[in-house]
Amino acid sequence: MLGGTFDPVHLGHLRSALELLEVLQLDRVHMVPAKVPPLRDTPQVTPEERLTLLQLGIGDTPGLVADPRELERDGPSYSADTLASLRREYGDQARLVMALGHDAFLRLADWHSPQRLFELAHLVVIDRPGCEAPLTTALAELIEGREVFSPGALMRRPAGGLLRLALPTRLSISATEIRRRLASNRSVRFLLPEAVEGRILDNLLYRRR
Ligand SMILES: Nc1ncnc2c1ncn2[C@@H]1O[C@H](COP(=O)(O)OP(=O)(O)OP(=O)(O)O)[C@@H](O)[C@H]1O
Ligand SMILES: O=C(O)c1ccc[n+]([C@@H]2O[C@H](COP(=O)([O-])O)[C@@H](O)[C@H]2O)c1
């Protein structure tokens, strides 16, 4: 699972999802837009629209799935609930991975039931340019004894490990920068898929009101 606000989805997300699929030899990557992201302000664009943009971005890419399950729940979109739902779907023995960028990882100790995340899945932290801050004490305690150093070591068990990965392509693209550009009428070409760009421009999304 790769969860996100996806406000909007961009090539940093999509390349990461594809490379996770290859490097970890996964069956599929569920990309799950958060209906109510727990630790940030309400996104500018509705969950349904962010899901539509994600579907357009993924297109027919084999192995990537635009997963609407968080849109079906009310309240904050806690990842522990999403992983529990995936665990129910795939069963106890499936190897389940939650991937997140290093910036999101740095705040993991503030998440809802962070220990439970490790009961339900492995965590894979994707290196992201410009996000090299040190770990807090709370985060260091949370991950103590969990780190492994290869995909093979991670995949021996269904859950509970932590792997930090430098994926082959590191893109310093962020949704914040894309929203800024759109708000000031600057180009976002080549930062996100053309179909996503087209829908955003056609519907005047992220324009300053
Ligand atoms: N360029 C990128 N490379 C690797 N991981 C990324 C990249 N952009 C986002 N991610 C990760 O993807 C997940 C979802 O990201 P999110 O939807 O918040 O996008 P974002 O670009 O970080 O958005 P914003 O700028 O609005 O915070 C997070 O775990 C985030 O760390
Ligand atoms: O479960 C939580 O408490 C929690 C707290 C913060 C973020 N998350 C999830 O982490 C993913 C990235 O979040 P964000 O805000 O960086 O887009 C997204 O799927 C969020 O739902 C989850």
UniProtKB/TrEMBL annotation:
Keywords linked to the UniProt accession: ATP-binding, NAD, Nucleotide-binding, Nucleotidyltransferase, Pyridine nucleotide biosynthesis, Transferase
The keyword Cell membrane is assigned to this record: no
Residues covered by the Cytidyltransferase-like domain: 1-181
Coiled coil: none
GO molecular function, one term: nicotinate-nucleotide adenylyltransferase activity
Reactions the enzyme catalyzes: nicotinate beta-D-ribonucleotide + ATP + H(+) = deamido-NAD(+) + diphosphate
CDD domains in UniProt: NMNAT
Entry protein name: Probable nicotinate-nucleotide adenylyltransferase
Native source species: Billgrantia bachuensis
Name of the encoding gene: nadD
